[in-house]
Amino acid sequence: MLNLESPTSAYIHVPFCQHRCGYCDFTLVAQKDHLIEEYLAAMEQQLAEVGEGIELQTLFLGGGTPTHLSIEQLQRLFNAIFSHFQLAADSEFSIEANPLNLTEEKIDFLKQVGVNRVSLGVQSFDSDILTFLERDHQPEQIFEIVESLQSRIENTSLDLIFAVPSQSLKDWQTSLANAVQLKIPHLSTYGLTIEKGTTFWSRQKAGLFELPEEELAGTMYEFALEFLDAEGLKHYEISNFARPGYECRHNEVYWTGDPYFGIGPGAASYQNGIRRQNYRSVVTWLKRIAAGDSPISDQEQLSPEDRAREAIIFGLRRRVGIDVAEFASRYGFDLHALAHAAIQKHVKAGFLEETATHLRLTQAGCLLADSVVVDFL
């Protein structure tokens, strides 16, 4: 029942950015490029501990902004990665990028080293919203960059943020229409959340802005579902839409409970039923590796029941939902025996629906997914 296979997916965290946006609580450092060489040396050391000749079906470089690194720095990182991992013939090799980092030279380099999927942090096509979100690009630049990128790497995904202060439904509709006009095969849409510790948190507490009403945020989300579906982008996960065949295979690894490597500050890994989390502080992570200490800050061996409950939470994120028979076979628990009360509660409320084979969120359930899945813990 427990997947003891060696992972065939790896996540590499690159924690460098030019600027930390006010809403961002990811593991990163801004204006700290003097740490890049030390980081690359530490990554070479960490990758050496993985082994050699490991074939990957998916490889994902996230951040931070991986494309903040120069071509020479990226080449050194890729050399370290491919000294220990090799990509399967039909693999997915993704990298997150900031639009203004993508010069034609860098795009050519990424294609040359085998990157075949780029996730672009666009966030909006409205200049006022981009300014509020502290992004460094303008709407007109997006079109030019995406066109240049897609002429070389066709599988391009855009991130868009909705429910931003002062954003109207029309603003959101325009951003979605612009993304579709670019013939993007994958979109990720996220409602703006304010995390403790970010500068937006402090600004909101000081009364400098207010988030839109929940009803407007819900309307924006529902519009995206209907509009993108009509445009051929299918809703395959709570926040993700794709044309057939362009679903993010790497993220599916997380949602289906398969194992994966996680390397770099703040990166998580899952192997043999054990979840490990690296230190989020980049400086702490670097110091521990330099001292020969473990970079792992937390480690948990999941019990069979914990694995099953976690599988429910991740599985409900996928629009196809949970295959009840497959769940019982893989985890050794009957879904209703494990969570009958929660299932009944949310089916009755209209947030979950059962078919002959699956349990899945309804459209209304997608809007309240976090409050639904908490009852399965």
TrEMBL record:
Q: Which CDD domains does the entry mention?
A: Radical_SAM (cd01335)
Main location (coarse class): cytoplasm
Supply the InterPro entries for this chain. Answer: Coproporphyrinogen-III_oxidase (IPR034505), Elp3/MiaA/NifB-like_rSAM (IPR006638), HemN_C (IPR010723), HemW-like (IPR004559), rSAM (IPR007197), rSAM_horseshoe (IPR023404), rSAM_sf (IPR058240)
Q: Which GO terms describe its cellular component?
A: cytoplasm
- Does the keyword field hold Protein transport? no
> Where's the Radical SAM core domain?
2-234
Return the Pfam families for the record: HemN_C, Radical_SAM
Q: Which GO terms describe its biological process?
A: porphyrin-containing compound biosynthetic process
As for subcellular location, the record says: Cytoplasm
Keywords per UniProt: 4Fe-4S, Chaperone, Cytoplasm, Heme, Iron, Iron-sulfur, Metal-binding, Oxidoreductase, S-adenosyl-L-methionine
| Similarity remark | Belongs to the anaerobic coproporphyrinogen-III oxidase family. HemW subfamily.
This molecule's function is given as: Probably acts as a heme chaperone, transferring heme to an unknown acceptor. Binds one molecule of heme per monomer, possibly covalently. Binds 1 [4Fe-4S] cluster. The cluster is coordinated with 3 cysteines and an exchangeable S-adenosyl-L-methionine.
Write the protein's name. Answer: Heme chaperone HemW
